[in-house]
Write a structure and sequence with these properties.
Blueprint lengths: L2 E3 L5 H4 L2 E3 L14 E3 L24 E3 L12 E7 L8 E6 L4 E5 L9 E2 L12 E3 L8 E3 L1 E2 L6 E3 L7 E7 L2 E5 L5 E5 L3 E4 L15 H6 L54 E3 L4
Antiparallel strand pairs: 1-2, 3-4, 5-6, 5-8, 6-7, 9-16, 10-13, 10-16, 11-12, 13-14, 14-15, 15-17
């Protein structure tokens, strides 16, 4: 995976830095795994805008991704690595031995023609999905379940990964991408390897128009609003806006918003790094 830099023939090309897409092997998706998507434009069922800065964008279809990997001990061959407009990672099209086709989030280093498998007894190799009880200590993993059979919930975006540190009773100790260390039941599944498209965080759009293609509208800064619109608005001249806070008045820096009596707190061994 590499980044593509452009000659500065225009102002927007000068700092543009996007994925070269050299890891993609197919240009058209598998039709049987597509469903149509309707854009909301940030509006609810009454037509009222409830989320700002959303609207427009290129028409997209959703690729149905297999986050459960519940076809146990049936080998699958990687048919292609594809672009997915709905996520930062690449996706891989699998052809199973029984004839079924499925998409998965592609791990870094997965190749076309490679065979992968999920379930008990699978080898801890890139792309294979195992139970946390069978994964060796120190292994880099992604697509981690929080509850058995629920499907992957953590470490799914481009370049993210977690690490299996140890096991204690019926729990596995996982270090998450945020730096948080927590316990997860060993009956949960995880996939070996790191998520693909590792250089996604280095991309630079180059122009506002490219953000519009993704369906992102301009976002007005709070300090330039009026007092009626935001707690940081108003003031004479270029006022700083006071303490950083959200539109509803919740402080933005250092303020803890997690419920102190949340049931899952007992599974967190070490909080994420600030």
């Amino acid at each position: 995976m590499a980044l593509k830099k452009f000659k500065p023939t225009t102002s927007s090309q000068r700092f543009k830095l996007i994925s070269a897409l050299d890891d993609i092997t197919a240009t058209s998706p598998e039709k049987s795994l597509l469903v149509s998507q309707k854009k909301s434009g940030g509006r609810n069922n009454d037509g009222k805008m409830t989320v700002r800065s959303i609207g427009g964008g290129h028409k997209q279809k959703y690729r149905i991704i297999d986050f459960k990997r519940d076809k146990e001990n049936i080998p699958a061959t990687v048919q292609s690595i594809e672009y997915d407009p709905n996520r930062t990672a690449r996706i891989a099209l699998l052809f199973y031995a029984d004839g079924e086709k499925r998409y998965i989030v592609a791990p870094n280093g997965l190749k076309v023609g490679q065979q992968i498998v999920s379930g008990k007894g699978a080898q801890p190799e890139i792309g294979n999905t195992l139970y946390l009880s069978e994964i060796p200590f120190g292994t880099v993993i992604h697509n981690i379940e929080l509850r058995p059979g629920q499907g992957a919930k953590m470490a799914r975006s481009a370049g993210s990964s977690a690490q299996l540190m140890s096991r204690d009773g019926k729990f596995a100790i996982i270090k998450l991408p945020s730096g948080e260390t927590r316990m997860i039941l060993q009956a949960c599944r995880a996939t070996i390897g790191m998520v693909s498209n590792t250089e996604h965080n280095l991309e630079v759009s180059g122009k506002a128009g490219r953000s519009r293609w993704f369906g992102r509208r301009p976002r007005t800064r709070a300090v330039v609003m009026n007092p009626v619109d935001h707690p940081m608005g108003g003031g004479e001249g270029r006022a700083s806006g006071g303490h950083p806070r959200s539109r509803k008045g919740i402080p933005a820096k250092g303020y803890k918003t997690r419920y102190p009596k949340k049931a899952s707190n007992k599974y967190i061994i070490e909080r994420r790094k600030k």
